[in-house]
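Weekly modeling sync, notes
Attendees: AB, CL, MP (scribe)

Item 1: holo prediction request
CL wants a bound-state model with nicotinamide-adenine-dinucleotide before deciding which constructs to order. AB pointed out that an apo prediction alone won't tell us much about the pocket. Agreed to run with the ligand included and paste results into these notes for async review.

Input as submitted:
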Amino acid sequence: MRARITTLPGDGIGPEVTAEAVRVLQAVAAIHGYRFEFEEHAIGGVAIKQFGSPLPRATLDACLTSDAVLLGAVGSPEYDRVPPNQRPEAGLLLLRSALGGYANLRPAISFSSIAACSPLRTEIAYGADVLIVRELLGGLYFGQPRGNDSTTALNTMRYSVEEIERVARVAFEAARKRRGKVTSVDKANVLETSQLWRQTVTRVSQHYPDVTLEHLYVDACAMHLITNPRRFDVLLTENLFGDILSDEAAVITGSLGMLASASIGGEVGLYEPVHGSAPDITGTGTANPCGAIASAAMMLRHSFHLEQDASDIELAIEHVLEAGYRTPDIAKGTGGYVITTGEFGEVICEAVTEIADMRHAYHAV
Ligand code: NAD
Ligand code: IPM
Ligand code: MN
């Protein structure tokens, strides 16, 4: 197994969490004799500083010619007053559209060992396991026309049947491998795009008679998600609703630092934690690397079809949490010991190695 992986650490805590995800991928490669070649490039604020663009040509070319892309985070308060197309975030949006991954998978799982750090009562969060399938290349993020002439500003929400169908199929396929339920989230009581969304998803569902489909309005969904998260299996929604609901879903897990994502369906898969650059904790060694590490696991699963290695990493995260290791964001009320971002990466590597060794020993018997 050989793979060329472009890493884009980006801004704020991006480099801190990406380093740990790379460390874990290197551990997996060492265990199994894979050859992962990493090539680092600039994106976001650091790329603006160095190259005058949030997505320099060399970065884009490297991503397009690699087997998978691992991104940390982009964004910095110093660009807060800059127009959208000159901000660090514009680099990420351009990259997403260039790579073509239209389905953004964002799992939110309640781990029993840290359930107490969720502000939700334990009996509410306990056992929740939601997969948000967020449409990533359409809606208000990319719709034209858009603009701001200082007296009026305009964004366009636009969806075609094809854009809805392709992401819906991803959601139904995923549900088939899980608990067989898709909740499609829209605002069909107000928006035309949502009416088309609902009709189209309903039509696609006819090809998946083994999967149950329900529709929810986004406002009600936001409420159900934190009052009864266990009612959800796969949650399918458009770009902006998915952005908002996935941060909300972090509450189930206890911290935004826990959430991973995979953008699939394009030529090259893009893997990034759901959280941002977290300027408030940058450089303190307190960033939770689980989201980035779990994104690396999703890379193994979706880009390289290494299902076993992906689940070994996910199991390692669970074991390390069960053993009591914590970053501060998941420490409150859970007992355990607070360690740094780097130490957390190290214990995950140790756990991954132990898990793989144990499996080999078992097979050898
Ligand atoms: P954020 O996700 O960076 O942070 C929100 C809160 O969560 C902060 O209190 C932060 O400390 C905490 N947090 C986030 N990740 C954490 C981690 N791994 N471990 C521990 N705590 C963590 O959101 P924000 O503050 O609204 O945005 C900051 C910048 O990041 C903005 O410029 C925004 O545009 C950008 N952003 C980028 C991405 C991305 O690159 N994919 C995602 C979201 C936000
Ligand atoms: C995310 C982020 C991005 C988004 C920003 C940084 C462009 O919030 O990945 O959730 O809105 O998609
Ligand atoms: Mn977001």
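Recorded for review: The radius of gyration is 20 Å.
Action items: CL to compare against the apo run; MP to circulate these notes.
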